[in-house]
Specification:
alpha+beta; binds flavin-adenine dinucleotide; 161 residues; single chain
């Protein structure tokens, strides 16, 4: 297997061709990661949630890390790591239009709202007004891709023999 760094453009193509990611946030020295759906537009990933642990933590500390991956098999995969900044899009004044925009991007995928809009049945239902739309502004991005093949060339094969 060979691993190479991807360019920013290659990494952005991986993000734009999917909509499932893992979002990590941090409180003190404690990390927390959950799967989320997203929609990419420009330099932002948009997503939707209802209040809970990740939203509380991101309100407190807006630094986020997002992992997007494409896994075909153990020798063929792409993986993109994004460092970004959380920006909530409340249904007020300057944010209203962008909130509607986020909604319109996310609703292109069937059942986009369900995983983020439902809590375990033991918890009380949330009202519409509790729905949180937010974006993660991409600050830094790295990508790696693996393909099948010899990792080091002829010299390494001779060493192994
Ligand atoms: C394919 C997929 C897509 C999803 N898309 C979205 C999305 O777009 N938006 C969104 O908000 N959520 C999405 N979810 C659900 C998400 O992963 C979280 O479960 C949910 O957002 C609740 O997170 P919270 O921090 O508000 O947890 P809370 O409801 O506040 O609960 C916190 C507690 O529950 C545990 N917990 C929370 N979520 C999970 C989990 N997934 N697995 C195991 N333990 C958990 C935590 O460890 C913590 O102890 C998706 C899940 C999947 C599998």
């Amino acid at each position: 297997m060979k691993v190479k760094d991807m360019t920013r453009q290659e990494s952005m193509e991986v993000i734009s061709s999917g909509h499932l990611a893992h979002l990590a946030c941090c409180k003190g020295d404690r990390p927390y990661v959950v799967p989320i759906y997203y929609a990419l537009d420009g330099n932002c990933l948009y997503s939707f949630s209802i209040p809970g642990k990740k939203i509380e933590w991101l309100r407190d500390n807006p630094h986020a890390c997002i992992l997007v991956e494409r896994f075909r098999d153990a020798q063929s995969w792409k993986s993109v790591v994004i460092s970004g900044h959380y920006q909530e899009l409340p249904d007020t004044g300057q944010w209203h239009q962008e909130r509607i925009h986020a909604w319109s991007l996310l609703e292109r995928h069937a059942n986009w709202w369900e995983p983020g809009g439902l809590k375990p049945v033991s918890q009380p239902a949330q009202s519409y007004h509790a729905h949180v739309f937010y974006r993660i502004d991409i600050e830094d991005i790295t990508g790696r891709a693996a393909t099948p093949g010899e990792p080091w060339g002829r010299e390494a094969r001779q060493l192994q023999d």
